[in-house]
Amino acid sequence: MKFLHLLLPFVFLSSALSEETKKPNILWITIEDWSPDLSCYGTKGISTPHVDQLASEGIRYQWAFTTSPVCSTSRSAMMTGFHQNYIKAHQHRTREKQALPHGIKPIPHLLAENGYHTSLMSWKVDCNFLPDRKEELFQGTDWNQRKEGQPFFARITFSGTHRLWNRDPVRPIDIKDVEIPPYYADTDFIRRDWANGLEQMQLVDREVGALLKRLADEGLAENTLVFFIGDHGRCHIRGKQFLYEGGIRIPMILRWPGKVTPGQVNTDLVSSLDICATILEVAGIQAPVPLHGKSLFKDGVKKRPYLFAARDKMDDTHDAMRSIRSHQHKLILNLMPQRPYCQFSHYKEGAYPALAEMNVLHLEGKLNEAQSHFMASKKPEIELYDLKKDPYELNNLAGDPAYADVQAELLTELAKWRKEVIHDQGLSEEFGAANTIFPEKCPTPTVGEWVNANTKNYDFFKVGLPGWYPTRTLAEWKKVRDLWTPYVFRDPSSEMSRPVVPHSQKKRVKKKKVKKKKPKKAKN
Questions:
Q1: pLDDT (tens digit, 9 = 90+) per residue, 190-229?
Q2: CATH (domain of 224)
Q3: According to the model, what pLDDT value does residue 436 have?
Q4: Do residues 234 and 37 lie in contact, with contact meaning Cβ atoms separated by under 8 Å?
Q5: For residue 345, is it within any domain?
Q6: b/e string for 418-432 if b means 16 or more Cβ within 10 A?
Q7: In the chain, how many domains are there?
Q8: Which of 175, 54, 90, 192 has its CA nearest to residue 423?
Q9: Domain range for residue 455?
Q10: pLDDT digits over 506-516, tens only?
């Protein structure tokens, strides 16, 4: 299938858009924490008619990926068009944010400087660099704030697919209708949690539909280039925060009436960074520093042999890994293989019901080999997968003589990217400290309990949390699963609140208030 068919040759398009009034509007829709789990991508059980229609009116990208598997780092990359490591925005929830290096400017600034009205129509910016405030990056909060005839660049995030996950009373999903990846235990608990996520996406789909209807009702749809993506992969234990397909593969859809032939399915390797390059291309803007992405309207994307991704610190949870993906193979380099996949995370233990179910089954010895792999106490240094034969990334081929040439090639290309493209800083001294400064084993029944009791003794944000695993005893994990059960299986119309998991809430260290000395009165 042809990559892209423009009804108007792109070389003429650029000159045709030289007048400001003829520049296209740009609407960039993002959903949070979501893989291509949509009906237009073939996901079972779910119905997303509005996103499906958008795809039918443009291009659906089958193999689209983000640069990082968590929000602030992936959003930092998408706000600039550069890999997060290159702009030193790769540590999730970094304390000391810095100005963008190398003369790089945020994409909204470049558009504003070239006549666009820029707006962020939702609250979340979540960037690990300065400037990082909504009002510093965008001019307004809605495209209706633009001047008459002025083109707009609008971004909006629908956050519903981030956990909590509300149920859908209009179209509840039967657990028998969903398909569970083989790396999860196929239990009613896992199925219900998975189906709840799909129901939440159905709610978001209606929000997307309402926004697109507004665009059409205001007569703006015909001259608006629309992008729809996820910021990173799904909010599940082997998804978000990891470089497997479930963590970095995202939905991506492009619609541009009259310019892009509808009904296309594109199978090239594309990146979230390519959206930035495409936006500047159609707006006729030259970036001061060449972007890392490529325009989706150019052949460079079609000829791309690899895509790269990176994961570093996640809140207080320290781990680091890099990946390279071709059309057929994926190699993951674990820079901290001594640390478990499921090391302690306040966020995950307080938000992921399936984590409790999987840990209980693991500690009871009831998981099969594919399911127990992710519950191991450490990781292999190298993971290599043949994605054509093994799309779920279950069979690690690292060290297999039959794949020696593939492994060598991918390691070489990954090292080249780390050195020449992102200027990889690798592991800091603080990252390594977590292996030596803590007791050998967890002294308490839960890691969270020990961590919260020792917040004054360690700067966990700096050195990371202990890598002890399992993070709870079997008895403690059973208590957590029992706590989750009524919430996971709640009725579609229920207003039940999400339970608070013991020892999953982060204890904050109160800063001592420094008393200001009153100035002495001057003597007469």
A1: 999 999 999 999 999 999 999 999 999 999 999 999 999 9
A2: 3.40.720.10
A3: 79
A4: yes
A5: yes
A6: beeebebeeebeebe
A7: 2
A8: 90
A9: 321-488
A10: 877 554 444 44
